[in-house]
Design goal:
Elements (H helix, E strand, L loop, with lengths): L1 H24 L2 H20 L2 H21 L1 H12 L1 H6 L5 H29 L6 H25 L9 H13 L16 H4 L3 H12 L7 H29 L1
Helix pairs in contact: 1-6, 2-3, 2-6, 3-6, 3-7, 3-8, 3-10, 6-7, 7-10, 7-11, 10-11
Length: 249
């Protein structure tokens, strides 16, 4: 029990250190971070068809969560190379996942204002019709948060310099959150490539939210495929992160 309390305390401290404190010191970061997903929704609302707005709303939710996790890449590299926080954490008695969860928690803190705005918009636009849909969205965005945070932590192992970080963050964020079927329905793509298009965790999460929200109707096979895809990727990334952390020791 003491060990659990100690690790929960460490996770909370890391999350507040990299999430709450920067936001408190400079709230403009939240405005800057939120404008991206909201601007896509506003643009599609103004020039798009009415049925596209639902997909733009879900796309904004997914982008908010995934972009906050991918944005951790710069912090992780800086903490490792400049502040040596990761080296200090290795010699502590905490488990290998405590550092990962603490850093990941900070990305969730960053995403919370944006998610709150989208949830309010969803109720105002009658996209969120009941508490069940809200629960599904919270659950799936949480799974996506874990997946993308683990992915970011893993690829950070292969980056040695901060100069490569920001271009890579933009490429990953746009490449996995805009081009796959996140802001648009997978049904407009040729059916032959649906399974390939749903490989990114952002696309699988978007399809599941769309399906459980009643926005799109697809065969159960693709629902199960998306669930399987998210589960397998998350478990694989957790194993890879564990191995990479052990090697760093």
């Amino acid at each position: 029990m003491r060990r659990l309390i100690r690790e929960l305390r460490a996770i909370t401290v890391l999350g507040l250190f990299n999430g709450y404190i920067p936001v408190k010191n400079n709230p403009l970061w939240i405005i800057s971070f939120t404008l991206g997903p909201v601007s896509y929704l506003f643009l599609l609302y103004m020039i798009g068809r009415e049925n596209i707005v639902d997909y733009a709303f879900i796309g904004g939710l997914v982008l908010s969560m995934s972009a906050s996790a991918y944005g951790l890449l710069g912090d992780i590299i800086w903490y490792r190379n400049s502040l040596k926080i990761q080296d200090m954490f290795i010699v502590t008695p905490n488990s290998i996942y405590t550092y990962a969860l603490g850093i990941a928690l900070s990305s969730y803190i960053w995403a919370l204002p944006s998610l709150a705005i989208f949830i309010i918009i969803g109720f105002l636009m009658s996209i969120l019709r009941n508490i069940y849909v809200l629960g599904v969205i919270i659950g799936l965005t949480t799974i996506l948060w874990i997946n993308t945070a683990l992915f970011t932590l893993y690829i950070s192992r292969f980056i040695r310099s901060e100069k490569y970080v920001w271009p890579l963050v933009s490429i990953i964020s746009l490449g996995l959150s805009v081009f796959p079927p996140v802001y648009y329905p997978v049904s407009i793509l040729p059916r032959d490539i649906w399974m390939i298009a749903l490989i990114p965790p952002t696309a699988s999460s978007a399809l599941l939210i769309e399906s459980f929200s009643g926005i799109i109707c697809v065969e159960n096979f693709y629902i199960l495929y998306s669930i399987f895809n998210l589960a397998v990727q998350t478990m694989a990334l957790a194993i890879l992160h564990k191995r990479s952390f052990v090697l760093s020791e």
